[in-house]
Specification:
alpha/beta; Rossmann fold; 5-stranded parallel beta sheet; two-stranded antiparallel sheet; 10% strand; DH_E1
């Protein structure tokens, strides 16, 4: 393998990570307010999936969805502005970090209700049968959401009606603050797919190449009328559940293992094996940080959202 694709993947991983690290700085400085949940370390899943999302598809993320918005093509300055409560935000400063949405970019947003995107994705897939598109609905959720009743109902409904839904579980092993293997009898969550009559598998979510390949099969099945698939992408969250989380629940040796397997480390090894010079690898991080510094500066200079507009768009 040459280094062109891994280098492109690393560039995207760094763009997402630099964005979120800058968001953390803004939150700690008081420029952003409210609860913010970061997906630092989980970027490989969104990077691998980004090229699979077609122009008529629909993506539904969790409240840890900044990287998914970037994967769908939303400009970082609009995302920064939204999180900062600026009028130039993608939702005019109304949504903030956990509720931003960008349907014009195929990103139908985040949701603070755990697992709530799954039944909404079923609605989007069902609508695709009536609007002339070959829409695939991608719903992304965490391992903890697999125990939510709404996710069970969505999977059952999608399977019963053979809907083009891809259920993507980003399993970072921590359901907020509790290890998933302490909450379920079978920690290999993908095996639940058989009970719904759909295919399922577990993949390495840190490897964009594997995500692209295996998730691509699920998209193809959905688009050809084969119904839903459950994909469990194993990854890790390198930060706390939210900004301010003391993160003291980690198990011995976990941080060290995570540091070896996360997307930047994995792709860096792959690029070095392909003979890509270290300065070119380092340049991906430098360029991403420069881009996000500039984008956040534009957002900070924008006017705050006008509270008088808070009730706009609430009623038809």
């Amino acid at each position: 393998m040459d280094g062109s694709q891994p280098l492109a993947d690393l560039r995207q991983v760094w763009r997402m990570r630099a964005f979120e690290e800058r968001v953390r700085e803004l939150r700690l400085a008081g420029d952003a307010v409210g609860s913010i949940h970061l997906g630092i370390g989980q970027e490989g899943v969104a990077v691998g999936a980004s090229c699979l999302i077609g122009p008529d598809d629909a993506v539904f993320a969790t409240y840890r969805g900044h990287s998914w918005a970037i994967a769908c093509g939303v400009e970082p300055e609009k995302l920064f502005a939204e999180i900062l409560g600026r009028a130039t935000g993608i939702n005019g400063g109304r949504g903030g970090s956990a509720h931003l949405t960008a349907p014009g970019y195929r990103f139908f947003g985040e949701n603070s209700i755990v697992g709530a995107g799954a039944p909404i994705a079923c609605g989007a897939a069902l609508a695709g049968r009536h609007d002339g598109t070959d829409r695939v609905a991608l719903t992304v959720f965490g391992d903890g959401a697999m125990n939510q009743g709404a996710v069970h109902e969505a999977m059952n409904f999608a399977a019963a009606f053979s809907l083009p839904v891809v259920f993507l579980c980003e399993n970072n092993s921590w359901s907020e603050l509790t290890a998933i293997d302490e909450m379920v009898g079978e920690p290999q969550l993908w095996r639940r797919a058989a009970g719904y009559g759909m295919p399922g598998e577990r993949i390495d979510g840190n490897d964009p190449e594997q995500v692209r390949d295996r998730l691509g099969d699920a998209f193809e099945v959905a688009r050809e009328g084969g119904g839903p698939t459950l994909v469990e992408a194993m990854t890790q969250r390198l930060v706390g559940h939210y900004i301010g989380d003391a993160d003291q629940y980690r198990r011995p040796g976990e941080r060290e293992r995570d540091a070896e397997n996360e997307p930047v480390a994995l792709l860096t090894r792959r690029l070095r094996d392909a003979g890509v010079p270290d300065d070119e690898i380092a340049g991906t991080e430098r360029a991403a940080r420069e881009e996000m510094d500039a984008a956040s500066a534009v957002a900070l200079a924008a006017p705050p959202a006008d509270p008088a507009t808070a009730k706009e768009h609430l009623y038809a």
